[in-house]
Design a protein that fits this description.
Blueprint (H helix, E strand, L loop, with lengths): L12 H18 L25 H4 L4 H14 L3 H10 L4 H10 L2 H14 L2 H23 L11 H7 L4 H13 L17 H20 L14 H18 L16
Helix pairs in contact: 1-3, 5-7, 6-7, 6-9, 7-8, 7-9, 7-10, 9-11, 10-11
Length: 265
């Protein structure tokens, strides 16, 4: 879930609410107050004889939410830190790291992550997330499709796998958004179109094939509750068309190296 006040992304509504209360509401109330004078390096709590406190072990006990809050507070005090955040976002994301993010985030947070990468000009990372999400969805839907004609599929691990991921219609829409976004790349910034490859056509074809059996038996499993009403098959077909157009527009330029596929389980 994306914060309405900043680009921060959280995995649950509860965490998002805590973030808004701890960061934005407090910052708003303090906006008219001067910041306290910065403490010197030798004033670090717990230090002696001018030695700085080693924060490394302390960071290990903080939750992800606490670290997020501390980072946003630091940026509020020194906005130059935002450039370091952007640099981290633009750092190439490996397939393994993308798969780890897939395991951590809820479906809505996954969608927000892809959009955040696109908005930041990290097109390669947006595509990497889309690749692991699409591969995982194809696997999950394929596994579920083979069970739908038998008893007990409602309690199956395959259904749980499908429900942990964005629905197929949302995945197709995200591909379309990613390929349409990032019109002003520059420097380290790039659009998803710059990194699209033939591998992506194969991934979307696999997703389209996995949709078929599920659409015939349980079409509701393919559609997001807050979707735009476009059927999953049409959404994925539109994504395939957008990808084909992006590859054609690149004029036969060499495709970037294919990434190693990362799948759940």
């Amino acid at each position: 879930m994306e914060c309405p006040h900043c680009p921060a992304i959280f995995g649950s509504e509860e965490t998002l609410s805590k973030h808004v209360a701890a960061i934005h509401e407090k910052l708003a109330s303090r906006a008219s107050s001067p910041l306290p004078a910065a403490a010197s390096a030798t004033d670090t709590p717990g230090s002696s004889d001018g030695d700085n406190l080693d924060l490394t072990p302390l960071l290990g006990v903080l939750t992800h939410e606490q670290k997020d809050m501390l980072l946003l507070r630091a940026i509020a005090a020194d906005d130059s830190l935002a450039y370091h955040v952007l640099a981290a976002v633009l750092k190439p994301l490996s397939a393994e790291a993308a798969a780890a993010r897939l395991e951590e985030l809820e479906p809505t947070a996954l969608a927000a992550t892809v959009r955040a990468y696109v908005d930041a000009g990290a097109g390669r990372n947006a595509l990497m997330m889309l690749r692991v999400v699409t591969a995982a969805a194809s696997d999950a839907l394929g596994g579920l499709g083979s069970l739908l004609q038998s008893d007990g599929w409602e309690e199956s691990e395959e259904l749980e796998a499908v429900e942990r991921l964005p629905r197929a219609d949302a995945i197709g829409a995200l591909w379309g958004e990613a390929l349409a976004g990032g019109d002003e790349p520059g420097g380290d910034r790039s659009s998803a179109r710059d990194h699209a490859s033939d591998e992506d056509e194969s991934l979307l074809s696999q997703l389209a094939a996995a949709i078929g059996p599920v659409r015939g038996a349980q079409p509701g499993l393919l559609v997001s509750a807050d979707g735009n009403g476009v059927p999953a098959a049409e959404s994925v077909a539109a994504a395939q068309a957008a990808l084909a157009a992006a590859l054609e527009a690149r004029g036969g330029a060499p495709a970037p190296p294919a990434s190693k596929k990362a799948r759940r389980g």
